[in-house]
Amino acid sequence: MSDKVHSPYTQMGTKKRVEKITRLKIKKFTILVALMDICVIVGLIVINSNSFKTFWIPTAMTTMSHKYLAYTLYDEETVNKIMSENYIEQNTEKVNLDDIVISGDTTTRRYTNKYEKEMFTKDPGNDVYKLIRINESKYKGWLTVIYDPADVELAVSAKLGRVGQSVNTMVKNNDAFVGINGGGFEDLDGWGNGSIPYGAIIQDGQHIWQHSGGSGQLVGFTKDHKMYLTNDDPATAIANGMWDAVEFGPNLIVNGNVSKIHGDGGWGTAPRTVIAQRKDGVVLFLIIEGRLPGYSTGATMNDVIEILLRYKAYNAANMDGGASSTMSIEGKLWNRPSAGAEYGGRTVSNAWIVKNNSGKAISHPNKNDY
Length: 370
Prior knowledge:
Number of strands: 19
Shape: elongated
Distance between the termini: 81 Å
Number of domains: 2
Largest sheet: 7 strands, antiparallel
Radius of gyration: 27 Å
Number of helices: 8
Order of helices and strands: HHHHEHEEEHEEEEEHEEEEEEHEEEE
C-alpha cells in the first residue's frame, strides 16, 4: 500500500476553503449580534415610551398575581407615577331608582339607533334573551340582552367558603340559561379556587357572606329588579331594598352619567365582565375576551363604556375580570377565557344568572350562527 500524497496545490485549496468557511461563520455571527443589538435598542425604545408604560404597568398592576411584571421593567417611582396618571374618578351620585321604569314591552318601540334595533330584533322563538357578538379591531366579546330583569338572579357556589364552582356548573345547578361571573375572591399567586369571596354577598335579601378585601361598593338588584349601586353597608342596603348583590366595582355609569376615566383608568387592557341596566329595565351582560394574542387583546374601561353607551346603559358596574371573565350559555362555555377553558372555565365564588321565571318562549342558540 502506498501513502497518499497531497500536493501543495491541494493543501492550499483546503486552506482557502477553511478560511472561507471561517469568514462565513464570522459574518453570520456578526449579523446575529447586530440583530440582537437592534432588538435590544428597539426594546429599550419601546419600554421607555409612555404609551407602552401606560399599557404595561396598569395591565400588570390590576392582576392579582402578576404585579411583579410591572416592577420587572420599571422602578417603583415609575410605576407609582403611571398609576397616579391612570385612575377612575367615580360618579358618586346616588342611584335614582325611580328613573328605571320596567315596561315589559319589548315588541313595539321606536329605535333610537341601529344598536337598539339589533337588541330588540329577537332571535326566533326566544323572548328571554339575545346574544350579540362584539367584534372590534383589538378585542372581541359577547353581549347578552336580558329582556325581563325579573329573570336575573345571583347564584353562589354550593360550597361557598370551601371551594368555588365554574359559571357553567352554577348555571346547570340553578336550571338557568345564561350566566356570567360576579365578584372577586382570594387569589393568592393566581391559584385561588373561588372559595373565599371578597367583601359582602347579599342573596334573596339576606346578608349571607362577609370577608375582608372588598371594594366597599355593592352592585346588585332590588326586589323589584332595579339595578342598585351603593356604598352603604349591607344592612342599610337591604333596608333600602337590595335583594341580590356582590361587593365589587368600580361603577362605570350612574344615572346615565359616565365616571371620568383618567388615562386608561388604571385597570389596563384585559378581559372584562360588566353588568348593566337600561332605563326600561333591560339588563346587559357584557364579556370581553382578552390576553389572547392574535385574537383579542382585551379592553380598557373606556372601551367597555363606549359599548354600553351604544346600547343605552343607564347604570353599569365592573365585575371581576381577567381569567375569571366567563359567559355560560345553557351550561356551555361560550366565550374564550384567557385560562381554564379546558376545564369549562375558572372556578369562581358567584355568578349572575338568567332564568325563565316568567315562562316565556325560549330557543337554544347555536354558536355557529354567530
